[in-house]
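Researcher: Re-running this chain for the archive, since the previous output was lost when a drive failed. Same request as before.
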Amino acid sequence: MKKKFLNAFEFKNETETSADLYFYGDITSDYWGAWQNEDQYPESIKNFLSEHADKDINIFINSGGGSVFAGIAIYNMLRRHAQKNRVKVTVDGLAGSIASVIAFAGSEPPKIPSNAFLMIHNPWILTEGNAEDLRKSADDLDEIREGILNIYEDHLKEGATIDDIKKLMDAETWLNGAEAEKYFNIEQSAPVEYAAAVGDYLNRARNIPKALKRASAPDLEAVKAKRDDEAKRDAIKRITIQSYMKGD
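Model: Regenerated structure tokens:
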């Protein structure tokens, strides 16, 4: 008999008419890539939206990004929900990389405080193989970039151009709320206190603002504890998968 795996996420602040959804970790492809409870993936969002099909959704983002295809799938699901319901997005600290795409999934412009950030850059991948494989990977990245640009273009502020955004992506640009308002249709709000974004994808960023670097200075004990937890969870995954495949 096949086992049903439990969803690890807990969604809070639900009412009869609305529910809150948090992107406070990495955007992963599936449950097995979600190493912490803050991580999100398309299946979890699909289930969440099915459960709250007739409700307004309040989305809060503090994420460094993750899987491009997972993020685009989540964006499209949220946009469909926004065709029938109100979907409000607030960037609490950072909407980085593919999380910056999700920031525009609402039925109205996202709210970004003046001290929160939208980070945009060109997509990247880890790859291996011969010269032909690497050339194909580069071509694939160009196509993925065009898909992301198509989404950004739908949310440009009047007077801004997609060429402006291309230059910002090439440079890996961190836009605070005031700066993002120059290029995108957003609602800038007053500065707020926020925590450093949770997740591993910021480790690959090049131009993190100094204020965020200070805020996200690593706690070595916390890092060690997280790695220990990941090792234990990896072991549990292997045992669970083996048991699942045997039909126990």
